[in-house]
Amino acid sequence: MQFGIFTVGDVTPDPTTGRTPTERERIKAMVAIALKAEEVGLDVFATGEHHNPPFVPSSPTTMLGYIAARTEKLILSTSTTLITTNDPVKIAEDFAMLQHLADGRVDLMMGRGNTGPVYPWFGKDIREGINLAVENYALLHRLWREDVVNWEGKFRTPLQGFTSTPRPLDGVAPFVWHGSIRSPEIAEQAAYYGDGFFHNNIFWPADHTKRMVELYRNRYAHYGHGTPEQAIVGLGGQVFMRRNSQDAVREFRPYFDVAPVYGHGPSLEDFTAQTPLTVGSPQQVIEKTLAFRDYAGDYQRQLFLMDHAGLPLKTVLEQLDLLGEEVVPVLREEFAKNRPANVPDAPTHASLLATARKEREDRQEGVRA
Fold first, then answer.
1. Residues with Cβ within 8 Å of residue 70, at least 6 apart in sequence
2. Is 75 helix (H, G, I), strand (E, B) or coil?
3. Domains parsed from the chain with CATH numbers
4. How many CB atoms lie within 10 A of CB 246?
5. What backbone torsions phi and psi does residue 241 show, to the nearest 5 degrees?
6. Which positions ≥6 away from 329 have C-beta within 8 Å?
7. 129, 229, 240, 282: which has the fewest Cβ within 10 Å?
8. What CA–CA distance (Å, rounded) separates 259 from 282?
9. Distance between CA atoms of 250 and 246, rounded to whole angstroms?
10. Residue 197: in which H helix or E strand, if any?
């Protein structure tokens, strides 16, 4: 099972000081957080994609390429790649390039985003959001798997004899997660292709997440990719920790109360009771995270949101120390217990390459037979 962090890259004033970091400071902080993630033994760093204030990560592959040069083991991912407003050809080329630079330590998460005005900025109609996601990904999937593509659709110029360059590393496309909070069509899309399904899991109660994950698992099996238990599931989560839970609540409350994603709404106590947000001790984080398996089943990737709402970099790095030293080692051990042998590990470039080679060998054996 993989553990890591994902960031939305918001530039938010620190409510305890009133100071707002500069864009440069926030970008550099995201890099420092990624480097810290590798240092403390996490597996994944994922960045969002936004094209509007108060967010800064408008070019995920630029940031991930820079981080790739400074890390050795960390899997570099996105917590949203906007499949609706990005050109599939550019996505294909950008992430294949990143694959080569990072020696395969790359995957990505497709999403539609949550900022409506982005659509017209890129010449798209938000009312076509689902249709854009379906058509654009169908093209992207082919661009990575076919050396020469002839294609015609509704939303972009036709392609004739087109080859996306560079080709994916070792002929193996980056693994794709499809991220969604509430859209069953996206769970269906992930299942159809046999890709991963990532549920954001930071706003909604457990029964909603359970329904979305079960839909994906059942449709994954329907399309013949394996049993429902073999489907590839990822979950998000939010935590804030101090060794003493009362200290965690007291310190995090002013950030929660004005946070862009949930400030000025339910109380901290109500939100932690009704959603996966955990504010407390490392042991409380462990217990609540382990409970995700009760409604999502055995899954492959757990990412935590930790660097938002104006939290200073120093505080976030302290959180990562606690996560890497006290939380994740226990989660690895506990999630491994009673995990059925038929539940696959999270896909990596190495495992995908091994599968591709075996499939080629099997086909060759079939021809010889």
1. 31, 35
2. strand
3. 2-367 (3.20.20.30)
4. 10
5. -125, 145
6. 41
7. 229
8. 22
9. 6
10. strand 196-199
Q: How confident is the model at residue 330 (pLDDT cuts 50, 70, 90)?
A: very high
Could you tell me the two tokens for 234?
């990822």
Cα torsion 113, 114, 119, 122: sign: negative
For range 157-186, the mean pLDDT = 94
Written as one letter, the residue type at 34 is: A
Is residue 235 helix, strand or coil? strand
CB atoms closer than 10 angstroms to residue 353? 15
- Could you tell me where the DSSP H helices lie in the chain? 23-39, 60-68, 88-101, 118-121, 129-145, 184-193, 206-222, 245-258, 268-274, 282-290, 292-296, 313-322, 328-336, 349-368
Q: What's this model's pTM, rounded to 2 decimal places?
A: 0.94
Alpha-helix residue ranges (DSSP H) falling in 277-348: 282-290, 292-296, 313-322, 328-336
Q: How far apart are CA 39 and CA 71, in angstroms?
A: 9
Please give the mean pLDDT across all residues of the chain. 94
Residue 363 has pLDDT above 90, yes or no: no
Structural contact between residues 30 and 9, judged by C-beta atoms closer than 8 angstroms: yes
Q: What is the pLDDT of residue 369?
A: 66
3-state secondary structure of 21: coil
* pLDDT at residue number 28: 97
Identity of the amino acid at 182: R
Q: What is the pLDDT of residues 238-297, one digit of tens each?
A: 999 999 999 999 999 999 998 877 777 889 999 999 889 999 999 999 999 999 999 999
Dist. CA 285–CA 306, nearest whole Å: 13
pLDDT above 90: residue 366:
no
Rounded to an integer, what distance in angstroms lies between the CA atom of residue 69 and that of residue 294? 38
- Alpha carbon of 284 to those of 202, 290, 303, 306, 331: distances in Å? 16, 10, 17, 16, 12
Q: Tokens 């093209």 appear where?
A: 139
Question: Cα–Cα distance between 27 and 253 in angstroms, integer?
Answer: 25
Helices (H) and strands (E) in the chain, counts: 14, 13
Report the amino acid identity of residue 147: D
Q: Read off the pLDDT of residues 77-99 as tens digits, 9 standing for 90 and up.
A: 999 999 998 999 999 999 999 99
